[in-house]
């Protein structure tokens, strides 16, 4: 890539110096719009110089990936090993012994040719491989496959997820320093093709995104603009273990097989047999992939596992019951599934007060399974209200089913609240907070203002100004990916439109209360509209830029507070923030100048434009200084974040804690600087004004930013307050989720929770709760019987 031309840099510096002289009056400019135009060109040239410098530094940054590759891989291997060993302990896989899961080679109809699996040269053949094995020999079986591609098939509850995690641990035990790292990923959230809701992603692109979510330290650049996670994938340093093809929407199974084949990566895939066979019939078997199928547990397996999992007295009950069972008995066939064997252990072997012989009363396998699923929660939560716990877990299960993903990501749980309800809540929040703080700013002379009308005006004007961009942000978070530039531009436009609508709504209320003279002002409807646009010129950029810079999608923080090892990045962030602050205030100043020329002072004040802000139009340098100060502090808040270490464990609670710390820091900085800036501006415009106006305005901006433009704010309003208020979650949702994880109901997958068993999630999603209406309850009962 070619270096920036020194001639272009010199010419830009000369033009910038000339325009600065013109703007400051060193060289006089004729015409009423001359100075305004010069200031606009000066600001644009300043931003252009900043962009050139940033691009120059990015293009010629020294790559560090080669030196850190082995260290990064070793740290990632340690993190993955710790993650899945902790998961095995939490799930009690080896307590007292692991279930002896076995598999055999699958039929040839779902496999590629053995010659392709064995990577045989053209013209040569390769015989079938011996792929039969059990849990302790999983890595041996995988390493016999020359292509490095394996598909594990098994019915629901057969232990495929346990096999995926155990394979990762066994391969990590054999890994050499700097070798490939196996990573287990739930493939259900991958959308390989545009499904009408989400844009399609290639397999490497999706894996990189999931790695950054689960290991935020891999988000950093690795030398050529790609993230470290993407570099690991492209260079073949990862083994993706993709768990749960069957959990994807049915129409995407065949597309997923095509996407995996096109990626050309070694891969391990798990799926239910029926879904995989349908995908194969729709396209072709996964290229170069060997396929094995998990077998049911034998009677001897159950005689070892269930009695040893219970007390000696209860173990004898299991032994006597199992010895008398026929192979075709419903209980025997149900317990051949590892999930049902685990549920039977929890319900009977550990509870100690229910005899396992009651299972003999059921005449069908489905009845045994439904009974065990229904008895699981009372056994796990013996001292809590079953109805409340089941209702809360059903809320989570229905949310996961609706999203067609097993992941319960804390930053997306706000989507359990419908979009219209969320928009209404934020409208009331923005308008209510603004009205409250504006009244606090006039605390010393409330008797001199119409309090009720003032509060209603604030709700209408500022509520509408904020809710349109906030609603757009909530919509894009639910509907799919939106480019950052487009998101920023649309947010600003929606905020501007909302501010116009809010101002006109305020004038309409004045018309209804006081008559047409107040509404029309001194120069008619034209003045009203122009004044509304002028008033919106300040509200629009502030609300839109705040949301636009926050990003088009809610996501957890991949950083923490700290001092960056490269100070130029912090400086770049501060300068960029200052430039954006100057641009916002410059836009406001130019818009106000234009309105003043069109409507005059009386027309502007007649439509409610803030007198303090209007007075500042005569002090453009003060306005620019205040905007630059606020923008630079925002840049400081962003630049003082450093990436997490690759090996740093980031579970759901840690991710939430990082997001909360980041939001509170940004709110503190914005509140301090905004209070000082607005206080100074108020003092210049009206020396007799109360200092409370600056303080309350700064606090208001900080609160609105934190609650509307951050992921943690959405979690706080919608998940921490609204869902408990409506009874759909407890008042301490994080404690409840952590407790469900400790009890084995949920598991952790990186920064997300998941139901430990997909079958349990499906059962809870269709189980009627106390809040269901009669028709809804009957529909769910019918679904649960199917």
Q: Notable features of this structure?
A:
seven-stranded mixed sheet, 12 strands, three-stranded antiparallel sheet, elongated, disordered C terminus, disordered N terminus, alpha/beta, 30 helices, 786 residues
Describe the structure.
The structure is a single chain. This protein is of the alpha/beta class. Helix 21 (525-550) packs antiparallel against helix 22 (567-606). It starts with 5 loop residues before the first helix and ends with a helix. The model is unreliable at 1-8, 29-36, 53-67, 602-612 and 773-786 (pLDDT under 50).
Average pLDDT level: 75
Decide which structural class fits the backbone: alpha/beta
The dominant shape is: elongated
Number of strands: 12
In quaternary terms, these chains amount to: single chain
Taking strands numbered 1, 2, ... along the chain, how are they ordered across the largest sheet?
A: 2-1-7-3-6-5-4
State the helicity in percent bands.
55-70%
Uncertain segments are 1-8, 29-36, 53-67, 602-612, 773-786
Indicate the radius of gyration in whole angstroms. 32 Å
Taken as a percent bin, the fraction of beta residues is 5-15%
Q: Determine the N-to-C terminus distance.
A: 62 Å
Q: Tell me about the largest β-sheet.
A: 7 strands, mixed
Number of helices: 30
